Amino acid sequence: MKQLFFAAFAALALSSCARLPQPARxxxxxxxxxxxxxxxxxxxxxxxxxxxxxDRTELEFTAKGDWIKVDAEDGNTIPTTFFxxxxxxxxxxxxxxIEGIRKTNIGYKVDIIGSHTDLFFNHNGDPIGNY
Length: 131
Description:
Blueprint: H1 2-18, H2 22-31, E1 37-43, E2 48-53, E3 58-62, E4 67-71, H3 85-93, E5 98-103, E6 107-112, E7 118-122, E8 127-130
């Protein structure tokens, strides 16, 4: 009975993931190989998709499958392999750890573990301020 339940649950997760555009599925498999998709929702307000992973990381994608936002559960980190390396280098040099990142009109907004201050970077990864 347990095996049947897990098989049905796995099939549901796969079917949810199948609703995502291929670039979003590729993004998840490349940058989050240690976890799997828990839930996928179509979001009209962002004209895209909201995804929750089993490790409680939350992702947002455009309708075409480009990432918009990646946010780890409080106190957890995210991979740094999908945005400009200059951002990860700068944050590390400052002694911070990245908990989340969002694309903005001017570049990127980075959430730091244990801080209420957000760091902002331009599209090239150069720091432009904090708020």
